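User: What would this chain look like folded?
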Amino acid sequence: MEPSVPQSNGDLHVVQADLTDDVQLSDVVMLIDHYAREPHIKGSGLPEDVVASLGEGLRNHPTTKVWLAYDGNRAVGVAVCFVGFSTFKAKPLLNIHDLAVHAEARGRGAGTTLLSSVEQAAR
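Assistant: Here's the prediction, encoded as structure tokens.
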């Protein structure tokens, strides 16, 4: 799958993450950690060893695709996906594993814009 064209919604924009970029990789880990702190998810942050290894694990997994939503230059949302295969359609699919928007940025379209970007890439 080719990288998607960045989507924009005012100051909000989504890019397919470059997992070789340490800043973007750090944004991914920060947002997943924030997501894990939600009471209905885990209720606490990721363990230190997971925080230390998550970025490299995502970077090295061969089917990882990640999109980041930014409000200006602040990361506010993430979609972590993995390429899989549909036996019913006999073609690749894109599985959304995590979709998270920072609590302070909710209600402004980051989740919708992330999903639109992922859908565009999947098609």
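The radius of gyration is 14 Å. If you want, I can go into more detail on any region.
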